[in-house]
Amino acid sequence: MIDAIQKLTEGLRGKVQLMIGRAILTAINDGGAIQTAQAQLLADEVQDGAERIQQYGFSSVPLSGAEGVLVFVGGNRDHGLIIATDDRRHRKSGLQPGEVCLYTDEGDSIVLNRGQIVRITAGAQVEVTAPVVTLKAATKVRMETPLLEVTGDIKDKCDSGGKTMSGMRASYNSHTHNENNAAGGPTQPPNQTM
């Protein structure tokens, strides 16, 4: 009886065993509507064109050699779906429970640390592009840099009729004082302008 049941379920058991596999990603194609990859599974099994399912709003291109988990619907190994990837060579470790990190193999990262601290680390440059960027700091904004460059003007008290740096410079450079000597009349503009 047991032999008969095993014979009847043998094909099903084989399909179940083939439904999930670990793989090494060997090539990534990020040019289409969905990313595809070539993956090395068993010793001689290469899966070409496996679709890599990513979370909405997040996209990455793993390096060759990253590891992946493939699922095969119905145990059919003709078309695998990559549902998870990782790369132990570059994964940022040492996070505390509840912390989150977005990282690259070059060491750039955005870490959401405990204590409501966000740390952004870039090896070369951080760039923000938007029509308006607003920083809200209840206490202060501190910049630790040897040089602060601004291509446009700077305006203080902008919500209550403040002045721009160029406006203050123009006022200073053209200002005069009433003369304090007996001759009377205003002084000349300053001889050292801003």
Characterise the protein shown here.
There is one protein chain. The protein has a five-stranded mixed beta barrel. Strands 6-7-8 form a three-stranded antiparallel sheet, with no helix packed on it. By secondary structure, the chain is of the alpha+beta class. The chain has a domain at 2-86: OB fold (Dihydrolipoamide Acetyltransferase, E2P), CATH 2.40.50. The mean pLDDT is 89. It contains two helices and eight strands; from the N terminus they run H-E-E-E-E-E-E-E-E-H.
Order of helices and strands: HEEEEEEEEH
Shape: rod-shaped
Give me the count of strands: 8
> Any idea of the CATH topology of the domain at 2-86?
OB fold (Dihydrolipoamide Acetyltransferase, E2P)
Radius of gyration: 32 Å
CATH architecture of the domain at 2-86: Beta Barrel
Point out poorly predicted stretches.
none
What top-tier CATH class of the domain at 2-86 fits best? Answer: Mainly Beta
Strands of the widest sheet, in order across it, are 1-2-3-5-4
Category by helix and strand content: alpha+beta
Strand content: 15-25%
What percent of residues adopt helix (DSSP H or I)? 10-25%
Q: pLDDT average, as an integer?
A: 89
Number of helices: 2
| Main sheet makeup | 5 strands, mixed, barrel
Distance from N terminus to C terminus (CA atoms, Å) equals 100 Å
